[in-house]
Design goal:
Bound molecules: uridine-diphosphate-N-acetylglucosamine, magnesium ion
CATH architecture of the largest domain: Alpha-Beta Complex
Oligomer: single chain
Number of strands: 39
Number of helices: 10
CATH superfamily of the largest domain: Spore Coat Polysaccharide Biosynthesis Protein SpsA, Chain A
Strand content: 25-35%
Length: 474
């Protein structure tokens, strides 16, 4: 479809009902800020200019936009004088452009880019001066109502300004429109503030167009949930739930098994392959990707984690980590940034790994802190091993070679290198390097003191038991 001249996203409002230190449009739905959703949808129109109108707390929003959408143009609305005034500020940034201008809002996160494309297509087919995106909703309370004359929209009346009869109308204004640029400029220039809020209402442009010989169309969106906005935290939760349900439906139709959609959360930027299985209580966040055949969950949260084919990740919390094909993680594992679990490797129960590279088939099965570590392929790290990476001032890395064996309850005081094929005896505190094929024993030698219990613990059940055993009893 052809491009539009500009999209103006209104996002200057205060969002008072959110009761938040954060501007409303920075609150997230499915892992993206609401303003990012609005920009993503707008980009489907390939606008020559994409203008975001900011006002309240604009420095926060500007900083965020520099990160996620550096190409947008920011327009500033100094005072919240209404949606008509927001568009006036947006038009200043648009400049002299001719053609179509789409106006939308920063707080309608479910609105799809395809819907904007359909709106523009309807507008072009109808040959109107403007076309409003409308919807029939179960409860129109609070919305502007669409007053029609057949195919044409003649007026939009705000709920608070509407008569009892007008309030019976269930077709609402979504707050999303496409205008001919010249008509919009003329309409904005003629706005007044004669309404219950004393604001410049963008919606009054519709009446002006009709009065000056133009026509306004209405494009009814059947999927009305796309038009639902966010004004408070209850609506934020509801929009998140709806967005999530849509994401899960999408992945299920792509061949992903979601055992319990009610407790599974998948962010918009996550990528899942066919035959992935998500067990109950799984949250996949950020840019997480999961390859085919992998099973995630139950009760697992992964943010920006890459999971390879056929891997299994059980009751795990992970971020910025890579789990390669066939690896097994969990239950109760904590993967921190920089961790790579190699192909077929195992990270087991109560293991924390940070900036740790585990080679193919390496095993860290139980109760280990694995920080700043490199472990070669096929090596085994015994239960309770600690990679002591921090000396109170600096962090250092330790390495364990291929097919090495670290006995249980060892401490590797970084930086140390355990070479290929080396062994470390259980309970060792290793402070120096171990060569290939060597066994390091770094602990006190065992010494037994005969008769100690008889002398030092006389009269205890231990003494009785020891005597009986010594006498050959049971
Ligand atoms: C508006 C529409 C209403 C429609 C509803 C859909 C008007 C007069 N009414 O009402 O018909 O049913 O949206 O949700 O337009 N904004 C600014 N600057 C301002 C005022 C608002 O940027 O001075 C922004 C807000 O941040 C928001 C959007 O414009 O993103 C809509 O404003 P809001 O106050 O929510 O309008 P509604 O009263 O909901
Ligand atoms: Mg609103």
């Amino acid at each position: 479809m052809a491009k539009v001249a500009a999209v103006i996203i209104m996002a200057a409002g205060q969002g008072t009902r959110m009761k938040s230190a954060r501007p409303k449009v920075l609150h997230e739905v499915a892992g993206r800020s609401m303003i990012q959703h609005a920009i993503t949808a707008a980009n489907a129109l390939q606008p020559e200019r994409l203008v975001v109108v900011l006002g309240h707390q604009r420095e926060f929003v500007e900083a965020h936009l520099e990160d996620v959408a550096p190409n947008v143009t920011i327009a500033v609305q100094e005072q919240m004088l209404g949606t008509g005034d927001a568009v006036r500020a947006g038009l200043e940034a648009v400049g002299e452009a001719r053609g179509e201008i789409v106006v939308t809002s920063g707080d309608v996160p479910l609105l799809a880019g395809e819907t904007l494309q359909e709106l523009v297509a309807t507008h072009r087919r109808g040959g109107h001066s403007a076309t409003v995106l409308t919807a029939k909703v179960p409860d129109p309370t609070g919305y502007g109502r669409i007053i029609r004359d057949g195919e044409r929209v003649v007026r939009i009346v705000e709920h608070r300004d509407a008569s009892e009869a007008e309030r019976q109308i269930d077709e609402i204004n979504s707050g999303i429109y496409v205008f001919d640029a010249a008509v919009l400029r003329d309409g904005i220039a003629h706005l007044g503030t004669d309404n219950s809020q004393g604001e410049f209402y963008l919606t009054d442009v519709v009446e002006h167009i009709n009065a000056t010989g133009g026509t306004v169309g209405g494009h009814v969106l059947l999927d009305y949930r796309q038009t639902e906005g966010v004004n408070d935290r209850l609506q934020l939760a509801a929009r998140n739930a709806e967005y999530n349900a849509r994401i899960l439906r999408h992945w299920m139709t792509e061949g992903v098994t979601v055992v319990d959609p009610a407790t599974t959360w998948v962010h918009a930027d996550v990528d899942l392959a066919q035959d992935v299985t998500l067990l109950p209580g799984t949250s996949l966040e950020g840019a997480t990707s999961v390859a085919s055949g992998a099973v995630i969950g139950p009760d697992t949260t992964l943010r920006d984690v890459e999971v390879g084919e056929g891997a299994s990740v059980v009751r795990t919390h992970g971020s910025l980590a890579v789990i390669e094909a066939g690896a097994s993680v969990g239950p109760f594992s904590y993967l921190r940034p920089g961790t790579v679990v190699g192909a077929g490797a195992k990270v087991g129960a109560f293991v924390e790994a940070k900036n740790a590279q585990l080679g193919a088939g390496a095993k860290v099965p139980h109760l280990t802190y694995c920080g700043d570590a490199v472990v070669g392929e096929g090596s085994n790290i015994g239960a309770g091993t600690i990679f002591a990476n921090y000396d109170g001032v600096n962090k250092s890395t330790s390495t364990v070679g291929k097919h090495a064996f670290v006995g249980s309850d060892s401490v590797l005081v970084a930086p140390v290198n355990i070479a290929d094929g080396a062994y470390v005896a259980a309970g060792s505190v290793v402070t120096g390097d171990v060569g290939p094929g060597e066994l390091a024993v770094a602990r006190g030698r065992q010494r037994n003191v005969p008769g100690w219990v008889e002398r030092k613990r006389a009269g205890t059940p231990s003494e009785t038991a020891a005597r009986a055993a010594a006498a050959g009893g049971e």
